[in-house]
Amino acid sequence: MPFFLLAIIIELIVNAWRSAGVYRSNDAINSISAGMLDTTTGYFTKFLPLLAWGFVLENLALVDMQLGWFDLSARGVALWLTAFVAWDFFYYWFHRFSHEISILWAAHAVHHQSEEYNLSTALRQTSTSFLFGWIFYLPMFLAGFPLEVLVTVNAANLIYQFWVHTRLIGRLGPLEHVLMTPSHHRVHHAQNERYIDKNYGGVFIAWDRLFGSFEPESDDEPVVFGVRKPLASWNPFWANFQVYDYLWFDARRTRRWRDKLGIWFRRTGWRPPDVEARFPKRNADLDTFRKFDPLVGSGVTRYAVAQFVVAIAAVMWISELYLTQGLAAVVLPCIALWFLLYSLGMLNEGRAWARRLELVRLLVVVPALVIAFAATQHDLSGVAWLAAAIYVLGSTAWLVTVKLHNDKVILNQIETRVN
């Protein structure tokens, strides 16, 4: 996480230096919030794929490929390289099917909802990938690749994909023929008809060239980022449930049982004919497309950014707490973090009741969770109690100040937009 955050800070500096305009605080907060939600809910869910993989490796593996971590023999190097390339091959098919099958898209859509494209977008991850994603990698465990090798190449694959989420790097010459580059991945995040559902590879672009899903970025058609059915929300929880909700809506209203079940596994975008007739939906028109960007005062924006810095620190503390003290220790801190992320989303949307919600969080939820955390698991030091009190009182005072000046700022912004 520190590496990712440092890279984002560098991109922010370059963005400001070039006046590139590739960041909006509300969008970046929402993207990283989705990543935080994925990380923290993952403490409670991501052991499930490991159980399945471990069972296959222990009981069904065809070959025993056990290997020492530092085996630099020809066999050792070949095994690591084969695993790295093979993982990317299976990632390609998982990624492709995640765009082509509705229930897989319901999870993956989270990553594509941002209407900006920067390194914060890379951290915009779904919290429900543990449901089906592990299935696509079973052949590697069935083949007998060691667990530590596969977990490592999975991490390497994901880390590689981080840096390609940027608009500040152009085409990279000969590398464009071999690797997934920022240019190729910008195409993948487009909602333009020409670009949609292209360039699925993680590290290598060869799979797309081989299986007919490659499309180069064209100077003649700038990429429009986002999805055809916009999220139109800064709520990271709704981001994870939006497409599931669409599918559930159609499944409940269609008359045929075949369609009630089939809609989850049909091609993305398919709807039962009877539901489509009664409840037609239109995708966004790119000719009139406008980014989701609710008007809020500059004071609200500054407050949200400051609170988000607190959230970043909290995520790193929670991860350390999980590693040192286990799952039970992070339950209450995770609940506190989730409440914060939801409240920030509502503030950035400019909801009329968002300030009241934030006051409830500061004056009720945070004190209650701190007291419960101290009572059930930890004896907090005097410094910790003092820091919590300063945080609650200081944030409350700031929030009250923001409320007093927000309406005037919004009126000024509206006048500017109209003019």
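Next protein, fold it too.
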Amino acid sequence: GLGNEEYLTGAFPRCGGVLGGTAFVSVHRVGPATAHHQHSGHVAIGAHSPLPPEVVEGAAWLLRRTGFAIQVLPSLARGRWEKQLWNVPFNGLGAVMLADTEVLLSTGVGRELVRGVMDEVMRVAEADGSGLPRDLPEAKIRYTLGMGAYKTSMQLDREAGRAMEIGSILGSVTQRARSHQQPTPRLELLELQLRAIDTGETKHP
């Protein structure tokens, strides 16, 4: 979601700086201490507060020793918005419709639905000064078409009767939209649907 680094900066005011990161990996838990890795796998990190470049590169070096591919972001804020551009439509629509990424993109209507949600996220990101390229939504759709039938974390949470990450994924974007007075009717409806589903299914799993 958005706002994690701001929260940590406030919680640890004397730490000297905060690094943040996003994971781009299609993985889900299938059992205790067991995960299924389906597609992709890299982590992108960047500085939230001003930090010397060698500090960021040092953190990247430590993380690369685990064997993961680590990318250093020139702008953490932009990286966060890039992740949200994918997270919001596929997590939100997937959980509401109980549809994996392949199903969502298998028809022209489904792709237009995904594009419509992405378009609203892009407008909020632009108002927030993210600097995302205009062709990024289509690039994300092409990337997702190569993933196969992937169920997002929110869809899996709904299927398991667990509370969904509505606030961090959808709510963090609609909150920014309101602060920028940016209308997002699709996102607001999607968030309401998710909250209605979440209330019913967490009370009656």
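About the second fold: The chain is about 55% helix and 15% strand.
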